[in-house]
């Protein structure tokens, strides 16, 4: 999915794509923090940039068939938004970091990935190591719907 450099970045930072995730996805810069890497990986999923997703997955965690599995996920999923819930460490001087996030998607059905992800920094480069799946977070009735419709949750996808 092509994103213009001046368009808002899909990662939810509020910055333009050109000033946010684009340099990392093009290999022109390394993500300086674990959170930045996590946001750029979300944008890579949004775009279907499988090469970036594999390159930023720690080499010890890569597996045979990973490219095909990511390709199938990308083909059947539309990413709707990202919310960073919390970060622990993961700054430029750290060697480890944790980012909890919720990524909203549409596919065969609407859903979310709620994960507490672990990152490691080796040779000045951050990698996604692994993560723990967490239970889904149900929005409050008057919160904006996570599908991105602009409606309140109760009027859109609420119970």
TrEMBL record:
Where does the record place the YchJ-like middle NTF2-like domain?
33-131
Q: Which domain of life is it from?
A: Bacteria
Q: Name one Pfam family in it.
A: SEC-C
Which Gene3D superfamilies did the record assign? Answer: 3.10.450.50
Which InterPro entries does this UniProt record tie to the protein?
NTF2-like_dom_sf, SEC_C_motif, YchJ-like, YchJ-like_M
Concerning SUPFAM superfamilies, the annotation shows:
NTF2-like, Sec-C motif
Q: Which HAMAP family match?
A: UPF0225
The family line of this record is: Belongs to the UPF0225 family.
Q: What is this protein called?
A: UPF0225 protein NC992_06265
Q: Which organism is it from?
A: Leptolyngbya subtilissima DQ-A4
């Amino acid at each position: 999915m092509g994103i213009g450099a001046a368009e808002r970045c899909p990662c939810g930072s509020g910055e333009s794509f050109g000033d946010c995730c684009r340099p990392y996805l093009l290999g022109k810069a390394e993500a300086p923090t674990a959170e930045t890497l996590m946001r750029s990986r979300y944008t890579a999923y949004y775009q279907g940039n499988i090469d970036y997703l594999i390159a930023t997955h720690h080499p010890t965690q890569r597996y045979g068939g990973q490219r095909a599995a990511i390709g199938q996920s990308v083909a059947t999923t539309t990413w709707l938004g990202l919310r960073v819930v919390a970060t622990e460490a993961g700054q430029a001087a750290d060697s480890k970091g944790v980012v909890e996030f919720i990524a909203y998607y549409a596919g065969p059905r609407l859903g979310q990935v709620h994960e507490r992800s672990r990152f490691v920094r080796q040779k000045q480069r951050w990698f996604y190591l692994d993560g723990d799946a967490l239970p889904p977070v149900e929005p409050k009735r008057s919160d904006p719907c996570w599908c991105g419709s602009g409606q309140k949750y109760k009027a859109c996808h609420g119970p």
